Amino acid sequence: MRFPRHPDIIKGRVRKLLRTNAYEQKETEAALRVVRAGDTVLELGGGIGYMSTLLATKRPIRSIHSFEANPHLIPYIREVHAANGVTNAHVTNAILGPNEGGIDFYVRDPMLGSSLAVLEGEVDPPSVKVDVLDAKQVFKDIKPTVLICDIEGAEADLIPHLDLSGLRAAVLETHPQWIGPKGINAVMQAFMDAGLAYYHRGSHGKVLCFRTDW
């Protein structure tokens, strides 16, 4: 895959991991295990466009729809898609929630360290307003068969509110250091309630994989 140069995004550790094919390695292995031809993928947390480009180029999926909170990453994600000839990936600058509205997103350097939460010790960090879209309506409109999620600790609040019943599989990076055992249990329970079982072959450490058909 090709990633255009960008002084604020492709640098340091990110650049090294991309060069050595080690970027998001656990998530990559999990996603390639469960995503199949014809899948419609919904990605929460678009990052640098890595996962959407990976799946659009390595699997004959129907489409992938990425929702990324950081407005500064949106143009770069589109550059990555274009550089790799991807035409069935769509990116939206928004997050999903139980109700429509807006929320503060805190922008940091490095850019990939930005998040919805104020970190310990921070005082008035710079922020931008990001749209919150109704999660149920988005799922109804897109009808995803696979969910990919890496939203820096917001998973414990969001996942239990989603309608996961139409999914065949999911890959989720959890953040136990922020959401704790209670948050992990809430996420696991939400998938189990939707009929998805923990898939050990795709899971590794904080990356959890779920399937309905194994």
Automatic annotation (TrEMBL):
Q: Membrane-spanning residues where?
A: none
One Gene Ontology term of the molecular function aspect: methyltransferase activity
Q: What is one process in the GO biological process aspect for this record?
A: methylation
User: Keywords, A to Z?
Assistant: Methyltransferase, Transferase
In Swiss-Prot or TrEMBL terms, this protein is called: FkbM family methyltransferase
